[in-house]
Write a structure and sequence with these properties.
Blueprint: H1 3-16, H2 18-25, H3 29-36, H4 40-48, H5 55-72, H6 75-101, H7 132-137, H8 150-164, H9 168-175
């Protein structure tokens, strides 16, 4: 399981839920586009799946939503992102690692059961032997586990902290030390 594969899962899951997340934030497509500095059509294409989301777009969107969560202290928005995106991906990673520990080798693009069903019925249980290069590329030397980019890790941690409400005040202060974006 390569880090780039996990990052792509996160990107795909976020894109799949972009419309509902935007609506929970209370933004129109145009308002989100303005926050990102892109055309409305770009956001629309991402929401409908007409354009695949890039890592840069994902990071920009997560940053914009994290800033909005901190600005408004909106735990509901943070919980929605955690529930729709982060929790399913973390479950998928746990299941994939459990399969790998059980000696099952799954194709990089094989689906992983994330709905709580029987894994034996899932196509992900089909085995294939990876090349040595694939195994080496999927693990770091130190831990044997894939590592996500620092930005991807930070955004997942920030969203989780904001969902719990423990860090909202600290992050708001760090982002807006003068009391808010509109105060001068």
């Amino acid at each position: 399981m390569a880090a780039s594969e996990i990052e792509q899962w996160w990107i795909d899951k976020f894109q799949e839920n972009l419309g509902p997340i935007r609506k929970v934030a209370g933004w129109t497509t145009q308002q989100l586009a303005d926050e990102l500095g892109v055309a409305r059509q770009t956001v629309s294409n991402l929401e409908t799946g007409k354009s695949p989301m890039t890592k840069l777009q994902y990071l920009a969107l997560r940053t914009v939503f994290s800033a909005e969560i901190a600005r408004r202290e909106d735990r509901d928005l943070a919980r929605i992102i955690k529930t729709l995106v982060d929790d399913p991906i973390e479950q998928r990673i746990r299941e994939r690692r459990a399969q790998e520990q059980d000696g099952e080798v799954v194709a990089d693009n094989a689906p992983v059961n994330t709905d709580g069903g029987n894994l034996a019925d899932n196509a992900a249980t089909e085995k294939r032997k990876p090349s040595a290069a694939t195994l080496k590329a999927s693990k770091t030397a130190a831990t044997g586990k894939p590592t996500l980019s620092t930005a991807m890790q930070a955004l997942a941690v920030i969203t989780g902290a904001l969902a719990s409400g423990t860090a909202a005040g600290i992050i708001t202060y760090l982002m807006f030390p003068d009391g808010g974006p509109n105060k001068r």
